[in-house]
Write a structure and sequence with these properties.
about 40% helix, about 425 residues, 13 strands, alpha/beta, 5-stranded parallel β-sheet, single chain
């Protein structure tokens, strides 16, 4: 059986050189190369969703792949697709880099400029390793889950638009439907998920920032298990300590959570830092919460453009959630979609603060009445995003396990169809 090899190379000259050599290898089947880290993860995820057997045996990652650094990308591939062997192509063949590459999950390292003999030897060894892993797993999906959990980030167009409330209710909906769910407060200076859920905590996301290998036990020690079943990873009580969570640390933390939970919801707040940017870049779904007023919509447009300039997220890969929506407001979801150039969620969250006031003030937002129109809409949004795991009949009725009331029906966007 031929060995399928997927090159991940951003430089056009390097692509041509690598593809020429790969095409000369015996029993090799090079597939169309990908040019950046996002495209690589998307491609592997799509193939894994079809069948584990569709995944390539070998992925070759060039040192200058971007925007995610090569070693961070290798770690993510190794965590999400553990039966895929990764080879790093690099001009630095020092013992330090070799050790780092192995620690991050690479199965081999090849020096630049590329040579046929070294490439052939390394590809063959990694392909044999990959085949052995797949035989050990029995070729089945019941042992190897491949894609890992779904990561959803929730960011605010500006402060006070309901970002944290949205993140919490999405996570609660996913957990109530039977999916193991983690809720992360990546609003590192001003995050307040703990107050919304009446939690007293000692450990926070900062405790994981300096750890290079986050084992399941280390992760479990940092996570707070809430009464609802949610696994909470909270922002530090001292906001200045948020600076300790770098973009690299954030990638490691999100990857570790993704490998342990079916759904990971990350509250990124309204201020963009390195950690939040890394989370948005890694997310399967990136939500941007706005309210239907001029200042908030301008903020949403500004955020979308900034993400695009920084190559964090393209506009078409972002979903805007309209909070505090009323039929009479002049700015409707269809107009927001036109202004921002993003997708807009099919469910808008109604304006009804009276429903929320009591539970917010008491710090018991998880006890929000299921008859609340706000909760119904947010849990319906969770269904729209594919975060819930309920039987078809339960989805139609709007009920999830562990909830006693309707969870919302789909609201048509005003003027958006």
């Amino acid at each position: 059986m031929p060995t399928r090899i997927l090159p991940a190379v951003g430089d056009a000259d390097a692509v041509r050189s690598l593809m020429t050599l790969l095409s000369q290898l015996p029993d090799a089947e090079p597939v169309s190369p990908v040019t950046d880290s996002t495209q690589l993860i998307d491609t592997l995820g799509r193939l894994a969703a079809e069948s584990i057997d569709e995944l390539p045996e070998v992925v070759v990652v060039h040192e200058r792949i971007g925007p995610v650094p090569a070693l961070e990308l290798i770690r993510e591939v190794a965590l999400r697709f553990p039966a895929v062997g990764v080879i790093l192509v690099t001009s630095d063949v020092s013992a330090g880099l070799f050790q780092a590459a192995m620690d991050y999950g690479a199965r081999g390292l090849i020096a630049l400029p590329l040579g046929y003999e070294e490439l052939a030897s390394r590809v063959q060894a990694v392909a044999q390793w990959s085949a052995g892993v797949r035989r050990h797993l029995g070729h089945g999906g019941d042992v190897f889950t491949g894609v890992g959990g779904t990561v959803v980030t929730v960011s605010g167009a500006k402060g006070g638009v309901g970002t944290t409330l949205t993140a919490i209710q999405l996570a609660l909906a996913a957990q109530a439907s039977g999916r193991a769910t983690a809720l992360v407060d990546m609003d590192l200076q001003t995050g307040d998920i703990a107050s919304y859920l009446d939690v007293q905590f000692r450990r926070s996301v900062v405790d994981l920032a300096a750890i290079t290998d986050i084992s399941p036990r280390v992760l479990a020690d940092a996570v707070f298990r809430h009464d609802t079943g949610l696994a909470l990873l909270l922002a530090p009580g001292e906001g200045e300590r948020g600076e300790e969570v770098t973009d690299r640390a954030a990638r490691q933390i999100v990857s570790a959570l993704r490998s342990r939970y079916e759904v990971v919801v990350v509250d990124c707040g309204a201020q963009l830092g390195g950690a939040g940017a890394a989370a948005v870049e890694m997310a399967d779904r990136a939500l941007l919460v706005t309210t239907p007023d001029v200042l908030a919509v301008r903020g949403a447009k500004r955020t979308v453009r900034m993400w695009d300039r920084l190559q964090i997220r393209k506009a078409e890969e972002t979903t805007v959630v309209v909070n505090r929506h009323t039929r009479g407001t002049e700015i409707q979801p269809a107009l927001i979609q036109k202004i921002t150039g993003t997708a807009v969620a099919g469910i808008a969250i109604p304006a009804n603060f009276k429903e929320l006031a009591g539970t917010v003030d008491a710090g018991r937002i998880h006890e929000l009445d299921s008859r609340s129109t706000v909760k119904q809409a947010l849990w319906g949004l969770a269904g729209e995003l594919g975060l819930v795991n309920a039987p078809e009949g339960d989805r139609r009725s709007g009920r999830f396990r562990g909830d006693r009331g309707p969870t919302g029906s789909r609201r048509r966007r005003e003027g958006g169809g």
